[in-house]
Amino acid sequence: MAKRVSLFVTCIVDQLFPQVGLAMADVLERVGFEVDFPEGQTCCGQPAFNSGYWEEARKVARCFLDVFDGEGYIVAASGSCTSMVTHHFEDLFRHEPVRLEQARRVKNRIFEFSQFLLNVAKVEDVGARLDAVATYHDSCHALRELHIKDGPRRLLAHVRGLELREMDPPEECCGFGGTFSVKFPEISGGMARTKIDAILRTGADTVISVDSSCLMQIQGAMRKAGRNIRAMHLAEVLASR
Amino acid sequence: MSLIPETAIRNTLADQRLQSAIYTATGRLVEKRKEVTSPAVLPDYQELRAQANAIKKHTVENLDYYLELFEKNVLRNGGKVVWCRDATEVADFILRLAKERGARLIVKSKSMTTEEINLNERLAHHGLEAVETDLGEYILQLAEERPYHIIVPALHKTRYDVAEIFTRKLGVEREVVIERQTLIARRVLREKFLAADIGVSGANFLVADSGSVTVVENEGNARLSTTAPKIHIAVAGIEKLIPRAQDLATFLKLLGRSATGQPLTVYTSVLSGPRRAHEIDGPDEFYVVLVDNGRTKLLADVEKRQSLFCIRCGACLNICPVYRKIGGHNYPWVYSGPIGAIITPQYHGVMEDSWLPFASSLCGACEEVCPVQIEIPKILLLLRAEVIRAKAREGKDRLEKLTFRLWAWLMQHPKLFELAGTAGAGLLGVSAEDRWIGQPPGGLAFGPLKAWLSEREMPAPAPKSFRQLWRRRRKAHGA
């Protein structure tokens, strides 16, 4: 019997980029997993947590824990949301022993999509094909909290027809930062422009990331500047054939 | 209490010359740091960071013990320790000493602690002249500005700016060649060194077991300031302590590399008391002024007191995408960048500059380069929560609070969350092919929506959310 995985698609993907969730399910099924979507899920609570509203964040995070408590792997469509669960739930629930225990259990079962493919499914080549010249954007929480750096690049190296070009510098933030993007729009927009310049210098036609929030910032700023480079989540690239 | 300096930030962002000056200077420091801390060049870099963190943690947690040990050893070396609660006490001590000794002129080497307490202004107010001798600091003193950067104070000044400042303030002919500008400063400053009665320095490290003050620098001005005048006063925050002289081996390896990408700075001075009878150089009197100025308040907080580990290398400023956009002067205090964003609210109170901890995308680049592993993003998060709690108590920002409460309520109701998206998609009337909107319907935008659209387009909710598409997919698969 195929192993079962539960999707955590994140609120952004659910409402704004549903194709990413579908792509993730396609790839996971292709590599032999049975995919399940717990319908009670919404958000990890990060927007409130990062904005200083810990009480509100806890309410949402408790929901998350209740929905995902149990057995089996959880695969998330975002490095940032994964990191919220694995790195920040313990801070959030430090005064609630029962929730803390729950958070620690979930922490060991949840994986960001590329992490899951490489470390659990142990596949590098998912049989994808995409004719594109692409550059990969390291999203900050995936990079610095989950240490996701080579993984997505290894997966992309096996995509037929895809040429990967590194931007310089690859590791600078796109400027999204959740509510930072609307509390400090000019700074955030300035950071996005620096990121876009780095992307454009590569001559790529596609920018890829493991976080839809970064891609929303990059693509939104790109469109505002009249440049429309395609932005794709890693799952969408790997689902292409 | 400060508000977001929106206009000043906008001006900084719009100044192309300034933007490129900041970006180039910080970029160069980032590259150099990366080179000299790479595994090929410094294989034990990460171990050194962990070691430095452990030493600082131990010292800060036993600060009372090490402060007394330090004082005992300074006394044994023939020096004196002066304990100061705040800026006024420091200025009072120096003014009193200057009066007793008939001193009129002070030469100073670079010190952020004296910037923090506005020492120069306080002394000038009582007719005592203090001249900065670090070239960057000297330029800024002439320009009457505060440091733009912890390590590179005049980072924002071009050589043309410096030419103008020198002409105006020193009455010299316009000179735009950097080497010759340096010679002009050198000529003026040599006279000051020879005439000075007192030398004031900062301290990079206070070594408890030897009672010595360690100062690192590249220009030789600190060595002159601390040895030429008859009196040397080192002004330092109490958190500058390290337990043993041998710990310098750890910290000196990290400081130069993190700050300027140098394996070691050009000069490293370890100053242990006044000149002994058999020595040629050195001051007759040696004082170490230990400044609290709010530091003990930080000590009380178990999670955030790691902010006191900072060795002022400036690496977090250089790597910070926010600092690289807004520069140093838009921060409310002399400490800018990520370290400024975490210590300013702790020294002054979170409600004083309540916007500051929020001015970060939480990208985490600062923590990654911090030589003493301060968890800057985590501290920013804790400060944000403190600000929000304080605002709730004071009844401020009620609309935002209400928004998050509504949001949290919605996120606990998946069915309603689903409907909200569908409603949004319908309301915006977008097509499935292109959901990006540059302008809101009817041009009406306010609050976060307006802020977002001012810099970016925005995707409208998909006509069918993932969960709706998922149900359809499962049906199609016959589940």
Descriptive key words:
heterodimer, A: 241 residues, alpha/beta, Rossmann fold, four-stranded parallel β-sheet, 13 helices, 8 strands, B: 479 residues, Fumarate Reductase Iron-sulfur Protein, Chain B, domain 2, 3 domains, four-stranded mixed β-sheet, 22 helices, 51% helix
Structure characterization notes:
- The complex is a heterodimer of chains A (241) and B (479).
- Chain A has 241 residues and is an alpha/beta fold.
- Chain A folds into 2 domains: 3-119; 124-239, Rossmann fold, CATH 3.40.50.
- Helices cover 52% and strands 16% of the residues of chain A.
- Chain A is built from 13 helices and 8 strands.
- Chain A has helices at 11-15, 18-30, 46-50, 54-68, 79-92, 97-107, 113-120, 140-145, 150-157, 180-183, 185-201, 212-224, 234-239; strands spanning 3-8, 33-36, 73-76, 110-112, 129-136, 160-164, 206-209, 230-233.
- In chain A, the strands form 2 sheets. In chain A, strands 2-1-3-4 form a 4-stranded parallel beta sheet, sandwiched between helices. A 4-stranded parallel beta sheet of chain A has the order 6-5-7-8, sandwiched between helices.
- In chain A, α5 (79-92) packs antiparallel against α6 (97-107) and α11 (185-201) packs across α12 (212-224).
- Chain A is globular and about 50 Å long.
- The mean pLDDT of chain A is 97.
- With 479 residues, chain B is α/β, with parallel strands linked by helices.
- Chain B folds into 3 domains: 37-293, NagB/RpiA/CoA transferase-like (Rossmann fold, 3-Layer(aba) Sandwich), CATH 3.40.50; 297-396, Orthogonal Bundle (Fumarate Reductase Iron-sulfur Protein, Chain B, domain 2); 402-476, no CATH class.
- In chain B, 51% of the residues lie in helices and 11% in strands.
- Chain B contains 22 helices and 12 strands.
- The longest helix of chain B has 21 residues, at 16-36.
- Chain B is elongated, with a radius of gyration of 27 Å.
- The mean pLDDT of chain B is 95.
- Chains A and B meet through α1, α2, α3, α4 and α8 of A and α1, α15, α17, α18 and α19 of B.
